[in-house]
Every structure is written in C-alpha cells, then in structure tokens.
Amino acid sequence: MTEIPINAFDMTCVSHQASGLWRHPEDQAWRYRTIGYWTDLAKLLERGLFDGLFIADVLGTYDVYGGGPDAALRNAAQVPVNDPAMTISAMAAVTRHLGFGLTATLSFEHPYPFARRISTLDHLTQGRIGWNIVTGYLNSAAKGMGQTRQTSHDERYDIARDYMQVVMKLWRDSWEDGAVVRDAEAGVFTDPARVHRIRHDGPYYEIDAVHLCEPSPQRTPVLYQAGTSPKGRAFAGDFAECVFLAGPSAAIARHGVEGLVSELQRVGRARSSLKIFSLVTVVTGPDDAAAEAKWADYRRYVSHEGALTLMSGWTGIDFSQYDLDEPVRHVRNDAIHSAVDALTVVDPNRVWTVRELAEHSAIGGLGVAFVGGPGRIADLLEDWIDRTGVDGFNLAYAVTPGSFEDFVTYVVPELQRRGRYKTQYRQGTLREKLFGTSVPQYRADAA
C-alpha cells in the first residue's frame, strides 16, 4: 500500500482557516507570536511523523469585505500576521526530520536577496526547506508596496516565470560543487574559478551578480505551488514538485488533479514527479460520538463574518453586499481565479448561497472537513485519495495544537495499522524523503 504524505497547515497568525475559533478555550493560536508555540508544534509533528509543516502567508490585509480592513481586524482574519520565515530556524533546531514549506510572495521582493534567504534556510535546516511559490492576490498588498493596484492575474504568472529564471540560475549555476575548498595552508577558502556571475536580462528582472551563499544541501528548495487556474496549472507543470489544492468536493478536487496531470503530460513529466496535497480539516477523537460532539462544540464558535471576510479576499467579491440567503454570482476578477472557478467549474448548476459558503468555509476554508473516530477518518482519507487522485493532505486545524494532537493520537496509529502511513522517517533532505530519491537537488528532467 502506498504511504500517504501529510503536512500540517498553519500560519503565523491568530485565525487561519477556522474563523471565530480563536475564541475557543482550548485554542492556543494566540501563542503564534512566541518561539515556544512553534517549537512545541514542531516537536509534536515530528513525533507524529508528519512530512512537513506548510506555513501559509499573505502580504496585505483582507479589505474586500465591506471595502476596508475592519472586519478582518475584528475577526483576526489572518491579521495580525508575522513573517513566517523567522520561525523556521527555531523549529529546525528542535527537530531532525520535519520539513518546512515556506510561503513567500515573489511579487514584492527582488529575487537576488530572496535567493539568499532560501539558501540560508536550507543550510540551517540541513536541507529541509521548501518554497510555496505565490504571486499574491490582495490589492492591499500592492498598495502597501506603493503600487496603485496589483498586477493582473495572468501577468503575475508571467512575472513569476522571469523570477524563477533568476533564482534558479543563482541556486544552480553560480557556485560549482567543490567551489569551497577550505585550504588553510594555501589561504584559499573558495576557488574563484568555480564561482560564476549570473547575468540575466529578462522582461521583468535584470541581474549581474554572484550568488551570496555557498551551495546548500538541496541547492534549490522543494518547489510548492498552490494555483490551479489555467495559468497556475501551466506554471506548476513547468516548475512545481508539490502542489497544494483546495476543493469543497471530491469532484472539484478531481478536476484540479486532472488539469495538473495534463500539464505534466504536456511537458513530458512522469506523474510520480509531482506530489499533490489536498486541503482537509480533521476533527477526531477516540470514537465517532466523541468526534461529533467535538465538532458540534466547535461550530458554536464559528464567525460567518470572519469566514466571508476571507472568502471576499480570495475571490475578490464583496460578500458584505449580499444577504446570507442570496445566491453567489460568478465573477471574474484579478484575485484567485481558482477560488471562483471552484464554485462552478464542475457543477455549473449548483448555486451557492452566501450562507452555505460561509458555513462550508468557516472551518477549513475551501477544503473539506472530516469528522469521526480513527476508523472513519482513515476510511474518509483513503476514499478521498481514490476518488480524486491526490497523493496526500495538508491538514488544517479547528483548534491548535489540539487538532494536530488528536490526529497524532488517534489517526496516525490507524493509518499505520493499514500500511498507509510511515513508521519511521527516511534519511536525507526533504526532497529525498518525499520522493525516495538519493538525489537531493532539483532535477529539470524530473520536475
């Protein structure tokens, strides 16, 4: 049986994908601003043999709902939010195997300093860093960077391609293997003949520089990508090693997988060269009744306004203008195309009301929530893989760290009993662990 890869899904904020549950007495998300929260979480996840911690991020505030940031601030809807990169070194220091998927928006940082940041993290984690490549979707972020509004959706992916050309040259071509000789007798630390200037003159970026870091264990981070619009899928086909998708139904998730597989075929890549992770929130306990009671308790804390604030930012639709029982209209805009498409692309006859959308997304965003004891959850996870074709899951929380603790306590042993979950980590870098390869570096022919 194939093992199921699982990442924890978190964000350096109070309220990530569970709107209103920061008020729950068991939730400790308010500790996001402390080192202890992140090191405790990392140790818990490594004890549960999670493949990685996938850290979401957003630059800007959710100000589409109501035309301003008040609802986001009131509901702690992904604000306040800290820089996720700062937590990773601390977590790496208390773990040996756990990987880290850093979300970083390329739209607002030049590739030259960013390449150094990633190489530094790959060194400090000893080869356990991944990069979730995002192009941004909030006008508030663009305005914060001095722009009038964000660049159009499709052009952002054109910019991303140029960006990737630069960082890949820096990571892969600037320093040869063996450039660092550390010859104390000759007084030579680095052989200059083995270090090369990178010159790039693209449509969006120009560079003439040597990469600042010596080669890290992976050189290139494991490349994650989260967009499933046509432009996003094409980008994933060309660059991604892992893709994160969210679908409110198995049919929608399956549609996303099929689109990604077609892109792999377009560029001649094997299906095994891409890991596809589906968003899921699991509420579990020792048995079904205990899990259902916990779910009912969590639902008491849900904030419709908080959920719709996030949904407005994801789709670009101001849901404050709708009554709760009004149908959602399909609007094309420059936010996340895949979030809008997910509502209609597979079942065009389904009309969501605003209330249904809020209820669905209040715990788990645009993903799905599974509720039950260990056996039921294992059944649901296996069935989801069979019906959608995904490889594994990004596991969001209802309360933290409780949702992760419950999964480790109840679900991991059941998956292991079925032969669907690892009983120990593979050795090597994050890339080697995920793909079972002895080659730690990104390979153009494989991804």
From TrEMBL:
Molecular function, one GO term: oxidoreductase activity, acting on paired donors, with incorporation or reduction of molecular oxygen
Domain Luciferase-like intervals: 29-391
Record carries keyword Zinc: no
Amino-acid positions noted as binding FMN in the UniProt annotation, renumbered to this chain: D57, T103, H153, Y157, S229
Alphabetic keyword roster: Flavoprotein, FMN, Monooxygenase, Oxidoreductase
Keyword match Flavoprotein: yes
Domain of life: Bacteria
NCBIfam families assigned to the protein according to its UniProt record, in alphabetical order: FMN_nitrolo
Similarity comment text for this entry: Belongs to the NtaA/SnaA/DszA monooxygenase family.
Name this polypeptide is given: Monooxygenase
